[in-house]
Amino acid sequence: MRDGRVCTLEPVARFADLCRQRNAGHPGIAVVTAAVGAASRRDVSDCRGPLSSLNADVPRSTGICAGSQENRPARKWPVVPVVTLDQVLREHHIPPALRRAGRRREGHEEDVFGRVRSRAVAARAMMIVELADTHGELTAMRGQHAHLAQRILQDGYTIVYKGRRQTPSSSPGNCGRGVPAATAGIAMITARPFGGLCNRLGSSIARCNSGVRSARDVEVIWALTPDMGPRSTSCVEPVPGLRFRPAGRFRFVRSPWTAPPLARAAIRAINRLLGVSYAFFEPDVERLLWTGQFDLSRLTAGDGVFLFTCQSVTHWKTLDYSVGASRGSAARPHRRSHGALRRPHGRRAHPADRSCDLRFARARSRAFVTADRTSDARRRPPVSLWPPTIRQPRRRSWPASAGT
Amino acid sequence: MATDDPATEEALVARFGRDVIMTSPKRFGRDSVAAIQDAVVDLFGLAATREILASASSSFSETASVLGRIPLTIVRK
């Protein structure tokens, strides 16, 4: 497609800006901030995260990005224009012979391609479709996407590549001419979350999610800090594929980012000896991953990744889609007093960003269970904290001195 | 009310009196398993509410908001 014209549609303004930055050197690539639908309109997109969808089936199948009013937090969401594919192709003067019909998983694949399919077939356009027919999580959409895939095949199309990123649960045999899953992944994901209980749980679940998607084990270094005194064995029960371990041999893993040049080389050498090919710290995520300077998909099977952050890699970027949210103000990380890195106040990720990670905890119903190690607790079955079963607490009377 | 600061708890109890629902007795701190367990009780107690009024940059409140799928409002001074 070196000489072709590509029109990228992205409903989330910030992601669209990232696309424009990434493709700034390609004059043939246009980025349109809009969603694709069967009819042009303006709609409220429930853009809370990467899995946002206009399709009611998506939240039903994922349990996240709930678009129903009763589940929508009382905040305003941006109005996202919905355009038709034909409208986009016409406005950007894309010649029929070079049309490439790409589609994000915003949920209307069936609707959109049902109408534009005949035109694409007539123009012999290459189509890039994100189908969830083999997706392990979007269960409610599998049926209609399988039907759509069948229709595309019946039109004479040949699937030349089936990516793994959007079909994380597809088997290696489903990868088409893509990179085999067994060699595309990474050897081990090691995370060292910092902060208190919720930061650590959120980070651990995010890593676990990444581990499941890449079919790799995840190791979480549970360091004892002023924010978290108890050991992991006292707080977290074992989870398949996720291993908690105390801080030990990874104590030398440090960020080479701020070190002098000689120290940087030494740190990298020590990290390599420890089996760490790449170490990412919170500022690295934005600097290297989100700017595209480092491509995680290039990792080989022998590479080990070390992540020192309390946020998910995929959801790290602040995703505040509320109307009036300050845009363009770079979230520069700064040091906390104890040396950990975090973003300034007011730039934290919206809780919904991590909702899919937390949903993973629900799938593994006993993922995180407080373990009461007392002898009395051993006689009782462990208490699952998900789903929460909380009784209405009784109101108590307060001491006279504490009352108003 | 969920807080890990005894002074804040005292202030809110003094202001709202019997309207405050909270875990009691609660162990404060981050260095003991018992305190963490009380924090988890607070976490799911918060998740069972209709709306959370939280302090800025509180991942605890954010997590409760996600768990309970309830709105989160950041209260600033």
In short:
The complex is a heterodimer of chains A (404) and B (77). Chain A is of the alpha/beta class and 404 residues long. Chain A has helices at residues 13-22, 57-62, 85-91, 109-123, 139-154, 181-184, 197-213, 232-235, 261-273, 282-290, 355-363, 375-378; strands at 6-9, 29-32, 35-36, 41-44, 79-83, 100-103, 126-129, 188-191, 218-222, 242-246, 278-281, 304-308, 334-335, 341-342.
Walk me through this protein's architecture.
The complex is a heterodimer of chains A (404) and B (77). Chain A contains twelve helices and 14 strands. Chain A has a five-stranded parallel beta sheet. In chain A, strands 3-5-4 form a three-stranded mixed beta sheet. Chain A is elongated and about 60 Å long. Chain B is mainly α. Chain B is built from three helices and two strands, in the order ααβαβ. Chain B has a two-stranded parallel ribbon. The two termini of chain B are 18 Å apart. Chains A and B meet through helix 7 of A and helix 1, helix 2 and helix 3 of B.
Q: Key features?
A:
heterodimer, A: 404 residues, alpha/beta, Rossmann fold, 2 domains, five-stranded parallel β-sheet, three-stranded mixed β-sheet, 12 helices, 13% strand, elongated, disordered C terminus, B: 77 residues, mainly alpha, two-stranded parallel ribbon, 3 helices, 47% helix, 8% strand
Which term fits the overall shape of chain A? elongated
Cα-based radius of gyration of chain B, to the nearest Å: 12 Å
Hey, which two chains have the biggest interface?
Answer: A-B, 44 and 39 residues
* SSE succession of chain A: EHEEEHEHEHEHHEHEHEHEHEEEHH
Low-pLDDT sequence parts of chain A: 44-51, 57-76, 96-107, 164-186, 314-404
Provide the residue-averaged pLDDT of chain B: 85
**Class from helix and strand fractions of chain A:** alpha/beta
Described by its quaternary structure, the protein is heterodimer
- How large a portion of the residues of chain B is in β-strands, by DSSP E? 5-15%
Largest sheet of chain B: 2 strands, parallel
Measure the end-to-end span of chain A: 72 Å
Percent helix of chain A, as a range, is 25-40%
